[in-house]
Amino acid sequence: MSSDQDEHQRENAATDELLEAIRARLERLIRDGAKVSALGSPDTVAADIVARLGLVKNPWADIVGPCYSSGGLQKELGVGRAALSKAVRERRALRLDTSDQRTLYPAFQVRNGALVPGLSEVLPILGEGVDDPWTWAQWLNTPLRGGDGVERRHIDRLAAGEVAGVVAAARRDAASWGS
Asked: Can you say whether the dihedral through the CA atoms of 127, 128, 132, 136 is positive or negative?
């Protein structure tokens, strides 16, 4: 089982334990005569409780989207660990290291079982502007409205074969980051 699956199972178990503890406390209050129905709508009460927990969703999940673990990407690409590490070193593949020591590989960089063509030309250019793979991921995956009014991501343009246009945009933006 992958570490992503392990973490998902741990979070589900923690959620189940929390819900059971809340249920037990509410049942004790009801036995002691409390009127839970007086609190208002269940959805409003639940929203208030969750808001007070102080949990924050990491915004990067929405920016980057789904990710592979190392093993998952190796399987998807049909390569071994050494080949994947080499692709990252050579800036042909994008790896994101998290603050909790996890390694993620954005799924957007893979199409039809292969890395998106042109990525190997763009990542080194972006690296000249700022040495931050998270910034590169955001740059590649953020939808931008073109002159035709259509929103497209740089990674989609690469996948469509518009390598020269994306390389030019990467040079322009990387130069502005470096100044």
From this structure: negative
**What are the pLDDT digits (tens) for 108-127?**
999 999 999 999 999 999 99
The DSSP output letter for 160 is T
Instruction: Provide, for the chain, the percentages of residues in helix, strand and coil under a 3-state DSSP scheme, each rounded to the nearest 5.
Output: 65, 10, 30
Closest by Cα among 146, 137, 165, 133 to 63: 137
Half-sphere exposure of 167 (CA within 13 A, CB side): 10
**Secondary structure letter of residue 116 according to DSSP:** P
Condensed to tens digits (0 to 9), the pLDDT of residues 11-26 reads 889 889 989 998 999 8
Q: Which tokens is 62 given? A: 């929405």
For the chain, helix (H) and strand (E) counts, in that order, are: 9, 7
Give one word for 177, left, alpha or beta, with left for phi > 0 and alpha for psi -120 to 50. alpha
Give me the residue spans of the domains in the chain.
1-53, 67-178
Percentage of residues in the chain having pLDDT higher than 90: 62
Would you place residue 1 in the very low, low, confident or very high pLDDT band (cuts 50, 70, 90)? low
